[in-house]
Amino acid sequence: MRVLHLGKFYPPHRGGMETHLAALIPALRSFADVEVIVASESRRTTVDHVNGVEITRAARLATVAATPICPSLFQLVRSARADIIHIHHPNPFAMFVHLTVAPTTPLVITYHTDIVRQRVLGQAVRPLLAASFAQARAVLVTSPAYLESSAVLNRLRGKSHVVTLGIDVQEFADVAPSDVDAVKRKHAGPIVLAVGRLVYYKGFDHLIDAMRTVQATLIIVGTGPMQHELEARAAAAGVARKVVFAGDVADVKPYYAAADVFVLPSVARSEAFGIVQLEAMAAGVPVVNTGIDTGVAFVSRHEQTGLTVPPADAGALAGAINRLLADPALRRAYGAAGVRRVREHFGAPAMARATYQIYEDVMAPCGARAALDAEEPA
């Protein structure tokens, strides 16, 4: 079986969808012949191989409302001759290409998130999305919570399957002590860590405000359009000395291993899952997240693997962080529980196996729908 994945970008580009693809694709190679086409960072098409998988980065003409526009994608998809096309949504341009040049090729869609802030785009592409979802043989949803809370997914229940995201758990356990020590020598402890693009829905502005009453160093790993605004906010709040904007680091694993607390302070539904929580949990770090109406609090559970607070509440964030920093035993207990939860429910092999089961079902005669063997995590 030859499966073509169409995503937005692929690592080293950073983002939740890209992290997911980097975990899923190598694991899928045990089951299928996999090819990946994503957007290039430039106007040139390149082909390389990552972990034995061919990654084609299609020349990107422009990016409109967070959607890469790659005219070469039409020919690339046409020539791929895939048995299944798997689109990672939101990705309206890839959906348009599928409907245009390969409408009879069975389609699977992973629904990463609703289109939240790009309302004009959402209205403009609504007929396209409707046509693409109608064509899809299966829609993969990243958590039960998102399936329940998304208006779009509520209309697609008949073809929706929960396949939770997963990671290579061992990768975050195998970190050289010298690399961890290097992070700790550079930054005064205790260390509060956040990882993500510097964009509105991540809620980093509220986390920076929370640092007024937290005696620790906050390290934010990532870049994005709000960097200057967030740096100015840290200065205005009087916490610039204890907020470090680390940018894109080559290897984030030592930062997780060095952290005392990990925080995901998201404020909008664009944060559908928060895969960085899995990375922190795999490293044994307790998580502070927010109770937005998505899968975020499904990943790290309140009073089990960390603490959940209301969104956009700097005081609540500070209170949760301070509670964990003041109680090493609680941090160890939540950290150990996080490792167990990731190993039991969020490993890449199980994710790949469940995804391949969907492919087999899609390719079965008459499009029969077989139930997944794996149970949804509790």
Features:
378 residues; alpha/beta; Rossmann fold; 2 domains; eight-stranded mixed β-sheet; six-stranded parallel β-sheet; 16 helices; globular; disordered C terminus
Walkthrough of the structure:
The protein has helices at 16-28, 73-80, 92-101, 119-124, 126-135, 144-149, 151-154, 177-186, 204-210, 227-236, 253-258, 275-282, 296-299, 314-325, 328-345, 348-363; strands at 2-6, 33-39, 46-50, 53-58, 62-64, 67-69, 84-89, 107-111, 138-141, 160-162, 191-195, 217-221, 243-247, 261-264, 287-290, 306-309. It has 378 residues and is an alpha/beta fold. It has two domains: 2-166 and 347-367, Rossmann fold (3-Layer(aba) Sandwich), CATH 3.40.50; 173-344, 3-Layer(aba) Sandwich (Rossmann fold), CATH 3.40.50.2000. Helix 2 (73-80) crosses helix 3, helix 9 (204-210) crosses helix 14 and helix 12 crosses helix 15. It starts with a strand and ends in a 15-residue tail after the last helix.
Q: Kindly state the mean pLDDT as a whole number?
A: 94
The helix content, as a percent range, equals: 25-40%
Shape: globular
Q: Roughly what fraction of the amino acids lie in strands?
A: 15-25%
| CATH architecture term of the largest domain | 3-Layer(aba) Sandwich
Quantity of strands, as a count: 16
Kindly, what is the distance between the CA atoms of the first and last residues, rounded to a whole number of angstroms?
Answer: 32 Å
Report the biggest beta sheet as strand number plus sense, adding barrel if it closes. 8 strands, mixed
> Are there runs of 5+ residues with pLDDT below 50, and where?
367-376
User: Major sheet: order of its strands?
Assistant: 3-4-2-1-7-8-9-10
Tally of structural domains: 2
* CATH structural fold name of the largest domain: Rossmann fold
The CATH superfamily of the largest domain is known as Glycogen Phosphorylase B
Structure annotation, total helices: 16
Derived from helix and strand composition plus strand pairing, the structural class reads alpha/beta
CATH class of the largest domain: Alpha Beta
Estimated radius of gyration? 21 Å
